[in-house]
Write a structure and sequence with these properties.
mainly alpha, 21 helices, elongated
Length: about 400
C-alpha cells in the first residue's frame, strides 16, 4: 500500500518508475510519475516519455525542469533524451548541438556520438560520422554491450562506403562484443568488403554466415545473389549453383531473377554441363532484355562450340549481333563466330567475321585478338581460302 506520508509515497513512485525503466517498461514508468512535481521525478518521467515516443510532451516537460536541481548524471540523461525528442520532432540542428555537447559524457557520451554520427550520415557526411565513431570507441572503453554492436557496425559501414574495405574488415574482426541482432547484416557487410578485396572464398563464407542469421526484410534474396557471385569468383561452382538455385526458389518473382538464372548457367558451364547450362541461358534470352540477355546469347554459342556443334554455335553468335546492341558482346560474338568458321575450315567466312570486328569494334577488347587471327589465316601471298591451302 502507498504510504500516507507524501514524501515517502513520492520516493516510492520514483523508485518504482526507475525499476520499470530498467526493465524496459517506459510507459509504466511515465504513468507512475504522471502527477510528480519533484525535479527527480520530472526528470525520470521526461526520459520515460521520450522512450515511449511522446516527444512533444517530453519537450514541454523539459521547459519546466531546472537541471541544476538534479544530480549531474541524471541531468546528462535528461539532456540526451531531450535531444532524442528534438530529433524525432524534426529539430535536427538543436538535437545535434545537444548531442555534440554530450559526446565526452561518461554517462551518455557513446549514445550521443552514435546519434550525432547518424545525423552526419543523413547529410552524406560519412567522414565526420566515421571520425565521431572512432573517437567514441577510443573514449568509451569498454563499450556497453547493448551499444557496442551498433557503433562498430555503423563505423565499419562508413569505412566501407568511403572506399576503405580493409578498415571495415578490421573494425568488425577486432570487435569483442556480440553483434546479436546485427550478426546477419555484419556478416553481409564483411562479405562485401572481402569481395572488393578479391578475397572471394572468404567473402562467400561471410555471405553464407549472414544467411544463418536473421536478416531485415528484403535482404535474403540479394544476399543469396552475392553468395552465388562470390562462390563463382572463388570457382566454387557447386556452391554457386546452390546459392543461385536457392534464390530462384526464395524469390521466383524477383526483378533480378535473370542474374540467378544466368549464374546457374555460368556455374554449370564451368562444371562441363554444357547442355544443362544452355537451359538456363535460354531462359534469360527468352524472357529478359539487356546486357545479361546478350551475354546469355553469347554463352549459348560458347556451349555449342564446346560441344563441337560449330554451325549451331555460329547461328547463336550471330544472333548476338542482330538482336542485341551491347557492343562488347557483339564484338566477342563476331570473334567467336570467326573461330567456329575456322574450325569447320571456312576461312573466307572466318575472315569476314574478323574484319567486322575490326571495322565496327576497333576499340574493343577483342580487336587485338582478332588482328592476331587475321594474321594467322593469311597465306604467304595474302588471303587463304582454307586451312589446307
Amino acid at each position: 500500500a502507498e504510504s500516507d506520508n507524501p514524501d515517502v509515497a513520492a520516493a516510492s513512485r520514483l523508485e518504482q518508475a526507475r525499476l520499470l525503466l530498467a526493465i524496459g517498461d517506459a510507459q509504466g514508468a511515465a504513468d507512475a510519475l504522471e502527477r510528480t512535481q519533484s525535479p527527480d521525478g520530472m526528470a525520470v518521467r521526461l526520459i520515460a516519455l521520450s522512450r515511449t515516443g511522446e516527444h512533444a510532451t517530453a519537450l514541454t516537460l523539459a521547459t519546466h525542469l531546472d537541471l541544476r536541481e538534479i544530480a549531474d548524471d541524471l541531468a546528462q540523461e535528461v539532456r540526451f533524451y531531450s535531444a532524442e525528442s528534438l530529433r524525432h520532432t524534426g529539430k535536427l540542428d538543436e538535437a545535434a548541438k545537444t548531442y555534440e555537447s554530450l559526446v565526452e559524457s561518461d554517462v551518455v557520451g557513446l549514445e550521443a556520438a552514435y546519434r550525432l554520427a547518424e545525423l552526419s550520415i543523413a547529410r552524406d557526411d560519412l567522414e565526420s560520422a566515421a571520425a565521431l565513431l572512432e573517437a567514441a570507441t577510443r573514449a568509451h572503453r569498454p563499450m556497453r554491450e547493448q551499444l557496442c554492436a551498433s557503433v562498430l557496425y555503423q563505423l565499419a559501414w562508413c569505412r566501407h562506403s568511403l572506399g576503405d574495405p580493409a578498415s571495415a574488415i578490421a573494425v568488425l574482426d577486432d570487435a569483442t562484443c556480440d553483434f546479436g541482432y546485427l550478426s546477419g547484416q555484419t556478416a553481409r557487410l564483411r562479405g562485401e568488403a572481402l569481395s572488393e578485396l578479391s578475397r572471394h572464398a572468404e567473402a562467400s563464407a561471410s555471405f553464407a554466415s549472414a544467411l544463418t542469421h536473421q536478416l531485415p526484410d528484403g535482404h535474403v534474396g540479394p544476399t543469396l545473389l552475392r553468395l552465388g557471385e562470390s562462390a563463382a569468383a572463388a570457382q566454387d561452382w557447386e556452391a554457386s549453383v546452390d546459392a543461385f538455385t536457392r534464390h530462384r526458389a526464395h524469390a521466383p518473382e524477383s526483378e533480378r531473377w535473370f542474374i540467378a538464372e544466368f549464374g546457374i548457367g555460368w556455374a554449370r558451364e564451368h562444371l562441363n554441363d554444357h547442355r544443362g547450362a544452355m537451359k538456363h541461358y535460354g531462359r534469360v534470352v527468352d524472357d529478359h532484355e539487356g546486357t545479361t540477355a546478350a551475354r546469355a546469347q553469347f554463352q549459348l554459342g560458347e556451349c555449342l562450340f564446346a560441344l563441337g556443334r560449330h554451325e549451331d554455335a555460329i547461328r547463336e553468335f550471330l544472333r548476338v549481333d542482330t538482336m542485341h546492341a551491347e557492343s562488347e558482346w557483339n564484338a566477342a560474338a563476331l570473334y567467336e563466330a570467326g573461330r567456329c568458321f575456322e574450325a569447320i575450315n571456312k576461312i573466307g567466312e572466318a575472315r569476314s567475321q574478323y574484319r567486322q570486328v575490326i571495322s565496327a569494334h576497333a576499340e574493343s577488347a577483342w580487336a587485338e585478338a582478332t588482328r592476331e587471327r587475321l594474321a594467322a589465316i593469311a597465306g604467304p601471298g595474302g588471303d587463304r581460302l582454307s586451312i589446307d591451302q
